[in-house]
Amino acid sequence: MPDFSVLTDYFDVYMEGFLNTIYASVIALIASFLLGTVIAVFRISSVRPLRWVGTVYVEFIRNIPLLLVVYIFFLGLPLLGITLNGFVCGTIGLTVYTAAFIAEAIRAGIMSVPKGQTEAALSSGLTYVQAMRYVVLPQAVKIVIPPLSNQFLNLVKNSSVLSVIAGLDLMYFGDKVASDTYATIDTYLFVAAFYLVLTLPLSFAAHRLERRLAKHG
Amino acid sequence: MMTRKWLAVAFMVLVMSVSVMTGCGNEKGGNTPGASDGNPDAGAEETLLDTIKSRGKLIVGVKYDTKLFGLKNPANNEVEGFDVDIAKALAKSILGDETKIELKEVTSKTRIPMLDNNEIDLIVATMTITEERKEQVDFSEVYFKAGQSLLVKKGSAIKGIDDVKKGTKVLAVKGSTSVDNIIERAPDANVLEFDNYQDAFSALKAGQGDVLTTDNAILYGMMAQDPGYEVVGEPFTDEPYGIAIKKGETELVDAVNAGLAAMKESGEYNEIYKQWIGEEPAE
Predict the structure, then answer these.
(1) Which of A178, B93, B234, B236 could form a disulfide with B259 if both were Cys (CB 3.0 to 4.6 A apart)?
(2) Closest approach of A8 to chain B, Cα-based (Å)
């Protein structure tokens, strides 16, 4: 039986971290979706330099550990004279990192729509953007939802990386409570419960969305 | 329940390995100060100081793993540091020759048992003088004023604990008493905690905080690594290091104190201090 005093005595501490984890996750979720979409479009663009930029971004970012991405912003940016605090650096790092995976998920979705459809749309007089907007993307979205929701769940969990750069997130305060009380296992059990409060509804919503899109498809 | 069981097993293994280690220590104690006691005069009690003089060698317990104080140099296998040099200077003052010394490795756990078993004459091993320890051993005068202090970039406006105010970003290490101490002394400071000293120091270098706080002995080590940073102000917690001597050996305590006083008088103490700590001792 876990020691609930570890939860009740430090509830405010957990809450501060929990809120910061929500903030970081929501900001990074929106930002990484936008950035990821742009990178995906670069990746499949017919303009060669854009393709290169997209490919270099994806291959560089997704093949180094998230921890290092975050350190680059926290310890590296100051070398250029820009010092941002742990929360901001962590959120930027999360965004940049997750965007690489989102770009790949979106690219895969778009590629899975048969090429003939784009050709047909273009030959019927639509511009490239219009063809994407009205023909390809609506079909791609359905394919993209499951891998995308996976990335968003990972993002929420990965936000714990903020704890190593004093980003004041849930994990940071969890570490603090654990070292204050020495009730390490109990503390982390409660931390896990807080993460579940965030991730389970997200997971559930993703499933519902998938089912609905499948029905109307 | 399972975890409890495993914890209990782990604890037992720990206890057993500690007792094995101390057991080994005892066996090696063939060369104890007591063993070389060749004095046939059984009536008069020979003091430890007499034993040391007739043995012609001072046996000192020092740390082998502590930066700046007692660290085995892998290049030449010599143990070097502030504590080691103080010990050598004491050998010179008691026996007239700083080479008449034997160093033995101690840890915080083994040092008092080794002193009690006559395996070592003195402990010069970053040992803080506490009331509790005074019941087990005798201490010399303070030879190093340790305590929690502040490390800042050279030229910082922060010159001591009183300059740590609201909004000052203080970097510390998670789960250390130094966090509690700084919050007590500067409740309005913005304390940011990191997983280890390396991360905290990197954050300080990156300008993510204004000061780094922990024991000054560790801060001096960082200062040695990067001279762009300095320790400022007096330590604001009191953890004076003393040289420990087996209880009741007052003659040896007096000899050690006389040695320390002479070292300070001659300037040798300041030299050793400056060599290892990187600055003059504060008065």
Answers:
(1) B93
(2) 20
**Residue B276 to residue A213: CA distance in whole angstroms:** 70
Is A97 an interface residue toward B (CB < 8 Å)? no
Give the minimum alpha-carbon distance from A49 to chain B in angstroms, rounded to a whole number.
Answer: 34
Residues of A in contact with B175 (CB under 8 A): 175-176, 178-180
Under the banding of pLDDT at 50, 70 and 90, the label for residue B31 is very low
- Judge whether residue A11 has pLDDT over 60: yes
Q: What are phi and psi of B111, to 5 degrees?
A: -65, -45
Query: Taking CB atoms and an 8 Å cut-off, how many pairs form between chains A and B?
Result: 43
* B65 token code pair: 């793993």
CATH of domain B56-145+239-283: 3.40.190.10
Structure tokens at B271: 């030299």
Of A60-74, A123-137, B21-35, B181-195, the poorest mean pLDDT is in: B21-35
Residues A53 and A216: beta-carbon distance below 8 Å = no
Of the candidate CATH numbers 3.40.50.80, 3.40.50.450, 3.40.190.10, 3.40.109.10, the domain formed by B148-232 belongs to: 3.40.190.10
Superfamily of A7-216 according to CATH: MetI-like (1.10.3720.10)
| Residues A118 and A135 sit within 8 Å (Cβ to Cβ) | yes
User: What is the distance in angstroms between the Cα of A119 and the nearest Cα belonging to chain B?
Assistant: 52
- DSSP E strand stretches across chain B: 58-62, 65-66, 70-72, 79-80, 101-105, 122-123, 137-146, 148-153, 169-173, 190-194, 211-215, 229-232, 239-246
What whole-number percentage of chain A has pLDDT above 90? 78
Terminal-to-terminal C-alpha distance of chain A: 48
**B107 φ/ψ angles, rounded to the nearest 5 degrees:** -120, 175
Q: Taking residues A140-156, report their average pLDDT.
A: 92
Residue A163 DSSP symbol:
G
**Least CB–CB distance from B175: residue in A166, A179, A185:** A179
Tens digits of per-residue pLDDT, B195-210?
Answer: 888 899 999 999 999 9
Q: Verify whether the Cβ–Cβ distance B199 to A79 is below 8 Å.
A: no
Tell me the residues of chain B between 143 and 172 that have a Cβ less than 8 Å away from chain A.
Answer: 171
A13 touching chain B per CB within 8 A: no
